[in-house]
Amino acid sequence: MTDATDTQMTSAAPAQPRGRHWLITLSFLLLVVAPTALCAWYLWERAADRYVSTAGFSVRTEEAGSAIESLAGITGLSGSSSSDTDILYDFIQSQQLVRQVQDSLDLRTIWSKVPPDQDPIYAYHPPGTIEDLTAYWRRMVKVYNIGSTGLLELRVQAFDPDDAQRIAQEIQARSSDMINELSAIAREDATRYARDELDGAVERLKVARQAITRFRNRTQIVDPQASIQSQMGILSSLQGELAQTLIDLDILVQTAPANDPRIVQLKRRIETIESRIAEERSKLGLGSRPRNDEGQDEGGTAEGGELDAFADLVGEYESLIVDLNFAEQSYTAALAGYDSSLAESRRQSRYLAAHVRPTLAESAAHPERTKLISLVALFSFLAWGIIVLAAYALRDRR
Fold this sequence. Notes:
- The protein is an alpha+beta fold.
- It is built from 12 helices and 5 strands.
- Strands 1, 2, 3, 4 and 5 form a 5-stranded antiparallel beta sheet that branches.
- The two termini are about 45 Å apart.
- It comes from Jannaschia pagri.
């Protein structure tokens, strides 16, 4: 009974901290408190304020309807093109745009207003190569593609709000120029083939008309069809006159003696008319022309330089007319195709539509000090906790 009472009256000895407890405390100070304190000091003492200018835009494709569609009440619809949005997304992050904006605004000067020795993490280290500037650009210029809507959101950071707005405005202007250039290239591609066809048709028409002009200059005949009709009229008249002369001769032979001078005169007239008919028929290509003993035709033209038969001239002229008609039809079709292609290319035009103009910040948005401190403290604590748990796990396995 006495022993039990003595045991109840005895108090437990206080716990004494051991070496591992001091080690855990030291590690907590080194891995959690120190990084958090260092980050807080840097953010509040050295990190410069950065202002953000925000802009929003999209690439729109305007399809203008034809006159018939307008009468039917179908108006042009404006839609966004995902491919153009992707192209613009890559362009904003490209070295080409960085170089263009650098030439216009001098980005190196703008982003090095805060000396690098004051803020070595966020300030730009001049001068640097274009690759260095592009890498820093991608830290300070963020572009977000908002889902499948085709909308782009641009956020530009700078150490001065006016500089951030100027950079955003320059990006928007350069992007608009690039989209306009793409639209011009597409329009040129759409009409190049039709224009080549039109140029070929124009050249073919010129050649056909020049051939007609050379033919008329060479033959001194404007229209062989009209000339041959005139020649046929002359030939018909001669044949009629020959028939009448033959009738007169037959009547005279029956009533007059054989040595009558009128009979000789009629025979000479008949010979002359027959010679003229043979010559006219030769011109028309209906027979050979009579020739004299010197190898010349009775019209006085040498054999080597005789006039072409009208049949050959008409055949040549008709061939030239066929070529001319074909060239004219080809030109008409090519011109209609070119006008149609040009109208179709004008129906679709791309343009940059800005639904949010570059803003001018009134307060600094970066660095987000409280957020960064919280993240540093959280991840430092998680890392410290993992290390401590791993150490205890190794100790318990011994």
